[in-house]
Design brief:
The structure holds 2 protein chains of 2 kinds. Chain A is an alpha/beta fold. Chain A is built from 11 helices and 14 strands. Chain A is elongated. The two termini of chain B are 26 Å apart.
C-alpha cells in the first residue's frame, strides 16, 4: 500500500509504439493515494495501452512507472498484488458460475478457501448479484457481467483499481448503479484510475482529469480548475422549432449571423439548434428577432453552463461530435 | 502470498472446466483404442504383438491428448481475454505457466493409462520397468504439452491451433519410431527424427516394455528432460515477446 505522502502512481516520459503507430508518446502524470483520477479521450487515444503498461500487461519502450515505492519499469510484475484491473470487456470465465468466478479470482491472489468464499458472498450481495450467484457467467446480462467483473477486480481489496471504460455498452440504469459503486469504492479508500470517453461520467466522478489525444496528455488538472476559464464565458442554446434551413443554407445562416453579431460565436450542434458563445452577457431579444425575421421560429433559448465538454473541445481541438460518435458506436451507458 | 493456492486453483479449474469433461474423456478413451486396434489388426500376429504396439499407442495417445487440449484452451482463453487475469495475478510467471500446463500434463498421463490397462488385460506386462515407464510417460506428456504451448503462442484462432498442431503431430507419428523403426526410414528423415523429442520418449518406452531401444535409457531420459526445459523456456520467451510486449 503506498504511503499517504507519495503518489499511488507516478509516470514519467512513458512511450509505447506498435510498429509505426505511436500509441503513447512521452506521457507524464501522477495519481495521488485515494484519488479518483480520470483519463478521458476518444477511442484509440491510448487509454487502454496506458492501463496495460501500468499493470504489467505491456512493456514500455521508454519512460518510468512507479506504483507506490515500487519501480515497475525494472520489475513490471512487482506491484501486481496492489492492483485490481477491470478491463474494457468483461473477461471472466463463461463456464464458471458468478460465485466460482469470484472464488477463482480470489485464489489467484492467495486467499484461503474460507476467506474467498466469504468475500465472494459479500461482493455478490454488494453488487446485487446474490440471486445469480449459481448461474454461469455466460448467461449474465451485460450489466450483470460488468458488475461481476468489477467485483472480481476488487476481490483481493487492491489499493489501486484500474477501471477501463466501466459503463460502456450497458443500459442507463446499470451505468448509474455502477457509478454509485465506483464512488463508494473511492470513498472507502481505493485509489481509482478510470478511463472513459463519457465526459459527463468523468466530470461527475473524478477529482482530477487528464485529456488524452493520440497518445499525448493535452491537459491535466482538477475538474474545478479545468472549468474555471470557461466560467468567464457566456453561452446560449437556441432551440428552433421551424424554419431552420437544410445543410447548404445552414452555412449561409451562420455567415449572416456572424456579420450581424460580430461579438458572438455561432455553432450548429444539431439541425434545429444554434449554440452561441461570447465573452460578455448575451442579449437574447435582438438574436431572436433576427432569427424570426429570417423565417426561423424560436422555441426556446436557454443559458448554457460551462461543462467539461467545452473544456475538452477547447483543449483537444476535437469537435464536439467526436465523443458523441463514440457513445453511439459503443452503446449508451450514459 | 500463498503461491500454492493460486497454483492448485488454476490446475483444478482447468481440470474441471476443460479436461475432465465427458467429450474429452471419451476422446481420451476412444483415440488410444482406435489406434491400438488398428495396429493390432494390421500386425496380424495376435496377442504377442501387443507388447511391441504398446509404446507407440501410449506415445501417440499422450501426444494427441496434450497438444490438442493445451493449444485449444490457451488460445480460447487468450481470445476471450480471460488469460489476462492470470497474467495480472501476483504469481511468478514461470509458476503461472506451470500451473496452466499441469492440467494438460495430467490429462496426457491419464490418456496413457488407457492402452496400458487394456494391454495388461491381454498380455503379460510383468517385465516392464514401471519406474522408467512412468518417468517416460511423464516426460513425454511434459514435452508434448510444452509443444502445445508453443503452438498456442504462435496462433490467434482456435482452428489455427488445431491445424498447426497437426502439422507437427502427424509427421511425428511416423518419424519418431512409434510404430516403424527409425532405422527403416531414409537417412535424411532419420536425421529429422533425432531432432524430435518424441523419438527419445518412444525409445524409452520400447526399452522398458520389450527391451528394444537404440540409446541408453538414462541418456534418453536426460535428452527428453532437456527438450522439456528448452521447449518451456522457448514458450515463456515467446509469450513475453508476443503477449506482454
Amino acid at each position: 500500500m503506498p504511503a499517504e505522502s507519495q503518489p499511488a502512481i507516478a509516470v514519467s516520459r512513458l512511450s509505447k509504439s506498435f510498429g509505426a503507430v505511436r500509441a503513447v508518446a512521452g506521457v507524464d502524470f501522477t495519481v495521488g493515494a485515494g484519488e479518483l483520477f480520470g483519463f478521458l479521450g476518444p477511442n484509440g487515444a491510448g487509454k487502454t495501452t496506458i492501463i496495460n503498461l501500468l499493470t504489467g500487461l505491456a512493456r514500455p519502450d521508454a519512460g518510468t512507472i512507479r506504483v507506490g515505492d515500487i519501480d515497475c519499469t525494472a520489475r513490471p510484475r512487482a506491484a501486481q498484488h496492489l492492483l485490481g484491473v477491470v478491463p474494457d470487456e468483461s473477461n471472466l470465465y463463461p463456464e464458471l458460475s458468478g460465485f466460482d468466478n469470484l472464488c477463482f479470482c480470489a485464489a489467484l491472489y492467495g486467499l484461503g478457501k474460507k476467506e474467498r468464499q466469504t468475500r465472494a458472498e459479500e461482493l455478490l450481495a454488494a453488487f446485487e448479484l446474490s440471486g445469480a450467484a449459481a448461474r454461469k457467467f455466460a448467461g449474465y446480462s451485460k450489466g450483470m457481467k460488468r458488475r461481476l467483473t468489477i467485483a472480481a477486480g476488487i476481490i483481493h481489496r487492491p489499493a489501486i483499481l484500474f477501471l477501463d471504460e466501466p459503463t460502456t455498452g450497458i443500459d442507463v440504469a446499470s451505468a448509474r448503479r455502477l457509478r454509485q459503486l465506483i464512488a463508494q469504492l473511492n470513498q472507502d479508500g481505493t485509489t481509482i484510475f478510470l478511463t472513459t470517453h463519457y465526459i459527463e461520467e468523468a466530470e461527475r466522478l473524478c477529482r482530477r482529469i487528464a485529456f488524452i489525444v493520440e497518445g499525448r496528455i493535452v491537459g491535466c488538472d482538477t475538474v474545478a480548475n479545468l472549468l474555471e476559464p470557461e466560467r468567464e464565458k457566456y453561452g446560449l442554446l437556441v432551440v428552433c422549432s421551424e424554419g431552420m434551413p437544410a445543410q447548404p443554407g445552414l452555412r449561409n445562416l451562420q455567415d449572416k449571423l456572424a456579420a450581424a453579431f460580430p461579438d458572438l460565436a455561432f455553432t450548429i450542434p444539431a439541425p434545429e439548434q444554434l449554440r452561441v458563445e461570447a465573452a460578455a452577457p448575451i442579449r437574447v431579444a435582438p438574436l431572436v428577432r433576427f432569427l424570426e425575421e429570417a423565417g426561423i421560429e424560436v422555441a426556446e433559448a436557454r443559458r448554457l453552463r460551462p461543462t467539461l465538454e467545452d473544456v475538452f473541445v477547447k483543449i483537444t481541438g476535437l469537435g464536439r461530435e467526436i465523443m458523441g460518435r463514440e457513445k453511439e458506436k459503443r452503446g449508451n451507458g450514459g | 502470498m500463498k503461491l500454492w493456492i493460486a497454483f492448485w486453483n488454476i490446475l483444478g479449474k482447468d481440470l474441471r472446466t476443460y479436461y475432465l469433461k465427458p467429450p474429452n474423456l471419451s476422446w481420451g478413451l476412444i483415440f488410444p483404442l482406435a489406434w491400438g486396434g488398428m495396429f493390432f489388426i494390421k500386425s496380424g500376429s495376435g496377442l504377442g504383438s501387443i507388447a511391441e504396439l504398446l509404446p507407440g499407442v501410449v506415445a501417440v495417445s499422450i501426444l494427441f491428448g496434450t497438444t490438442s487440449m493445451l493449444a485449444v484452451t490457451v488460445t480460447f482463453e487468450k481470445k476471450n481475454r480471460s488469460f489476462e487475469r492470470l497474467l495480472l495475478a501476483p504469481i511468478p510467471f514461470e509458476l503461472l505457466m506451470l500451473a496452466k500446463t499441469s492440467g494438460a500434463i495430467c490429462f496426457g498421463m491419464l490418456n496413457a493409462l488407457v492402452p496400458v490397462l487394456m494391454a495388461a488385460l491381454l498380455t503379460d506386462l510383468a517385465g516392464v520397468n514401471w519406474s522408467v515407464f512412468t518417468a517416460a510417460i511423464f516426460l513425454i506428456a511434459v514435452s508434448s504439452t510444452f509443444l502445445g504451448l508453443l503452438i498456442a503462442v504462435a496462433v490467434s484462432e482456435i482452428f489455427e491451433a488445431q491445424t498447426l498442431s497437426n502439422f507437427f503431430r502427424f509427421p511425428m507419428m511416423f518419424l519418431c519410431g512409434l510404430f516403424f523403426p527409425i532405422a527403416l526410414l531414409p537417412v535424411p528423415l532419420q536425421a529429422i527424427s533425432w531432432l524430435l523429442p518424441l523419438t527419445y520418449g518412444a525409445d524409452l518406452l520400447h526399452g522398458t516394455v520389450h527391451g528394444s531401444h537404440r540409446l541408453p535409457l538414462a541418456l534418453n531420459l536426460t535428452i527428453l528432460a532437456l527438450f522439456c526445459l528448452a521447449l518451456f523456456t522457448l514458450s515463456l520467451h515467446q509469450i513475453r515477446r508476443r503477449w506482454i510486449a
